[in-house]
Design a protein that fits this description.
Layout lengths: L22 H14 L3 H15 L5 E5 L5 H9 L6 E6 L2 H13 L6 E5 L10 E7 L10 H11 E14 L3 H17 L4 H11 L6 E2 H10 L4 E8 L2 E7 L8
Parallel strand pairs: 1-2, 1-4, 2-3, 4-5, 5-6
Antiparallel strand pairs: 5-8, 7-8
Helix pairs in contact: 2-3
């Protein structure tokens, strides 16, 4: 994947517009997300383990909001069933186009279909695993539960959903603590105060985070029987939700 350095919010700018996953973002996305999202690489890598453990023969695996395909490839390389199919969806053609190129260059054998489409309009069918890595937060809040309900309905009885998100915190001290560490993380990765401020302004009306409790409640409302946070680094976390309560005694 491209290693072009993210400098989108540096230099002179006449105005700050809302963040969009356009060609300029796609060109620098690997560097941007590595330097902006603590734990991103670990979450993507470990998501592949969910494919290894929970993808079932003959099923579909969905990567909703696939961006350039990092999660798709992690899943493809670890799913043990050749008769599975991965369906990777992104509504930005700049992202979906590069995802297709990365899939074509990958030697994996599990079939991958890349679609440029709105995830709210994609049918979820015969799914054993669905992944929403840093995607739900970009949907309007009132459209999140309907999507999760559709995912729940499209999962097999033993199906699993992985949701990774930036978190908000109801407690002011917790919010200040995690925000401070996140800002320190971005500074340590070479972002200037100006870049941090401009990107925050560009994202504030586009990315609306929820608390961990809100994620739990919404997943329960959608019908999931067991929900467990499995990873957190500062104000970024990932949860797993099971359609049925899993039997982990084996």
């Amino acid at each position: 994947m491209s290693e072009e350095r993210d400098s989108l919010f540096a230099g002179e700018q006449t105005m700050i517009v809302d963040f969009a996953f356009d060609a300029r973002v796609a060109a620098v996305f690997p560097d941007m997300i590595r330097r902006s999202v603590p734990g991103y690489s670990e979450i993507v890598s470990l998501t592949g383990l969910f494919g290894q453990r929970y993808a079932t023969p003959g099923s579909n695996i969905y990567d909703l909001g696939c961006s350039l395909g990092a999660t798709t490839l992690s899943l493809r390389r670890q799913i043990p069933h050749a008769d599975c199919r991965i369906i990777s969806v992104d509504n930005a053609e700049a992202m979906a186009g590069q995802c297709r190129a990365h899939v074509e260059a990958d030697p994996g054998t599990v079939p991958v279909e890349v679609r440029c489409a709105d995830i709210r309009e994609v049918a979820i069918e015969n799914a054993s695993l669905v992944v929403l890595n840093f995607t739900l937060q970009f949907l309007p809040p009132d459209e999140r539960l309907p999507l999760l309900e559709r995912i729940h309905a499209g999962l097999r009885d033993n199906g699993v959903l992985v949701v990774s998100e930036k978190l908000d915190f109801a407690n002011d001290l917790s919010q200040a603590f995690h925000t401070d560490l996140h800002l320190a993380f971005k500074r340590a990765n070479g972002y200037s105060e100006l870049e941090i401020s401009r990107k925050r302004s560009a994202l504030e009306r586009v990315l609306v985070p929820d608390t961990l409790e809100q994620h739990r409640e919404r997943l329960q409302w959608a019908g999931f029987r067991w929900i467990e946070p499995w990873y957190q680094c500062f104000n970024f976390a990932s949860l797993v939700a099971f359609k049925q309560r899993p039997d982990l005694a084996e």
